[in-house]
Specification:
- The protein has 577 residues and is of the alpha+beta class.
- It is built from 12 helices and 30 strands.
- The chain has a 6-stranded mixed β-sheet with strand order 22-19-17-25-26-27, with helices on both faces. Strands 4-1-8-7-28 form a 5-stranded mixed β-sheet.
Length: 577
């Protein structure tokens, strides 16, 4: 999956110095190393915003992301004094999974020394590049009697907000000094950012008079689509620029070429260009609705879909005596056993998408009062807070008088989890939300009845659930691999099972979580598609409603010059094994 990162800040500390005006901030985004052998990677820098302590940068950064991967970025803010001399204004570290799991996919960090930095994440669609060249004529001068305006333009995308139309700037041109008939340099804009690849989605073009203090004066605007831009380029007809309902000049589209789009998309776009510019519209506005397309995991998460996690732990006798060192359940205060390691790695990732971070923890394969139990509650509560709560519930079982037994049966925990998933989603739906459940089964051996387990998975495939089975120990797990391949294309049933052998990822927790969780995004989107449920509109959050977190200290040194930014030192504080 590709995601977009955008940034803005509020009330940064002015570091320009006494009598030197206001800082000119820009930000550098660095992907921090989180795996052994990896190096930090500079993703790029934003534009410089002159004389502004609350910058809203238009530069967007594209990052590859997988559920289960540990992606962290450091955002370093600088005041541009001269091209080679920059004063630091603060730095903050963001965990991308935590941002995706936050309401509105936005998190804020308090910057040491003053101010707040916000990072927002949204889905990116690989939809080609719009190469746009524009010129304007007869713009109205807004500078006053004794000077001329210095025009530049911005392109803004339309956001689907529950409160109505919202525009978000994604491109800003250069400004041309004292020119009411400007011809700007060609712009190259990623269509996935501008319109999500939809040639009929509205674009807002704003023209401003540049002011050195940053309070730019509006000169006019118009609303159009990619198809409208292409048609205007072909016709060479001017587009009307309006300011407060009055004519404010003409805009000419000299070039509007799209590259890097698949042939089917281009043919669909070409078929509708002829109707993109209704002659009755003086500004040639085109405000087509989104094509919708295929929704993915990020669409549902952005709309507030909750991920619930249920943990089921194998307490059968084949795990060995937990009092003996080297057995799978042995509790040693100095080192985690394999069950603890798997719980810590996987639940840590999934908890970032769960608002209340409370998880049911169940056990199976143990005797209580002489009777074998294939699904029982671990700990003294039906849910446990965070990873530490899950681990405490797991540890509590060994103080409860259980007798480890056999056989290994998954059927009851699968059925119970499927019912839990159905109830959780129904409860969320009643409040206008959505919910999807992940059952994490940790086991040391193959199930006793593979066919019965397969039938239970088949029955559960109608519910909003995925089942992840992690095999610990040295069993051959042949039955588990059968379950992994049981359903899916050709069976008429949704694929909901994933099996991973822990030993293959013992020394790399990120490899374990990636392999364990990599099928869940597809399984989630396929479930909602199968029942005809679209994502809710992306949640919009005001800055004041976002919970602030303190800035994290990070050892990161950057060398910045006009042509290149490189990591001079640090950027490895978050490497995990």
């Amino acid at each position: 999956m590709k995601i977009e990162i955008s940034l803005h800040a509020l009330r940064l500390k002015n570091v320009a110095g006494t009598f030197k005006g206001t800082s000119d901030p820009f930000a550098v985004v660095t992907k921090i190393a989180t795996e052994p052998g990896k190096k930090p990677e500079v993703l790029g820098k934003t534009e410089v915003i002159k004389n502004n302590l609350s910058p809203n940068w238009v530069k967007v950064f594209i990052v590859d992301y997988e559920l289960g991967s540990n992606v962290k970025v450091a955002v370093s803010i600088f005041d541009e004094v001269r091209k080679s001399e920059n004063l630091p204004m603060g730095c903050a570290v963001f965990d991308i999974a935590e941002v995706l799991g936050a309401r509105g996919n936005t998190k804020g960090k308090q910057v040491k020394g003053g101010g707040t930095l916000y990072l927002h994440v949204r889905k990116s669609n690989g939809s080609g590049v719009l190469r746009l060249k524009m010129a304007a004529k007869k713009l109205k001068n807004v500078e006053g009697l004794f000077s001329k305006s210095d025009p530049f333009f911005e392109l803004s995308r339309k956001l689907d907000a529950a409160g109505g139309k919202t525009w978000d700037s994604v491109y800003r041109s250069e400004w041309l000094k004292k020119n009411l008939n400007p011809e700007w340099e060609e712009a190259a804009v990623d269509l996935s950012i501008l319109t999500e690849g939809d040639f009929k989605k509205p674009i807002l073009i704003n023209i401003y008079d540049h002011e050195s203090k940053g309070n730019h004066t509006p000169m006019g605007e118009l609303e159009i689509t990619v198809n409208g831009l292409k048609a205007a380029a072909e016709s060479r007809k001017p587009l009307a620029v309006r300011l407060k309902g009055k004519d404010a000049g003409e805009l000419y589209i000299l070039k509007a070429d799209v590259s890097g789009v698949d042939s089917v998309t281009q043919k669909m776009a070409a078929a509708s260009i002829s109707s993109a510019l209704p002659t009755s519209s003086p500004a040639y506005k085109g405000v087509g609705a989104s094509t919708g397309g295929r929704y993915n995991f990020l669409d549902y998460i952005a709309g507030g879909c909750e991920l619930n996690v249920v943990v089921a732990i194998d307490f059968t006798g084949s795990n060995g005596d937990p009092r003996q060192p080297g057995t799978l359940h042995c509790l040693n205060s100095g080192q985690r056993n394999d069950y603890e390691t798997a719980i810590n790695a996987i639940v840590s990732i999934l908890s970032k998408y769960d608002t209340d971070k409370k998880f049911p923890v169940w056990g199976f394969g143990a005797k209580y009062g002489g009777e074998i139990q294939h699904c029982f509650q671990c700990g003294g509560a039906d849910q446990h807070l965070g990873v530490e709560g899950v681990l405490r519930a797991y540890h509590a079982v060994f103080k409860s008088g259980l007798v480890m037994s056999r056989p290994t049966v998954f059927v009851e925990v699968i059925r119970a989890a499927a019912q839990h998933a159905a109830n959780a989603h129904a409860s969320a739906q009643a409040q206008g939300g959505q919910c999807y459940t992940i059952l994490l089964i940790l086991t040391d051996g193959s199930v006793s009845d593979v066919q019965a387990t397969a039938r239970a998975l088949e029955d559960a495939s109608k519910d909003p659930i995925s089942v992840v089975i992690v095999g610990l120990g040295n069993d051959d797990f042949s039955g588990m691999r059968f379950l992994d391949n049981f359903s899916g294309p050709g069976t008429g049933k949704r694929d909901i099972a994933q099996f991973v052998a822990f030993n293959q990822h013992r020394h790399n927790s990120q490899s374990l979580t990636r392999e364990t969780l990599n099928e869940i995004p597809t399984q989630l989107s396929e479930y909602f598609a199968s029942i005809g449920v679209r994502p809710n509109p992306p949640i919009q959050r005001s800055d004041s409603s976002i919970i602030m977190e303190e800035e994290e200290e990070i050892d990161l040194s950057l060398n910045i010059d006009e042509d290149e930014i490189v990591v001079a030192a640090g950027g490895t504080d978050y490497v995990t094994y």
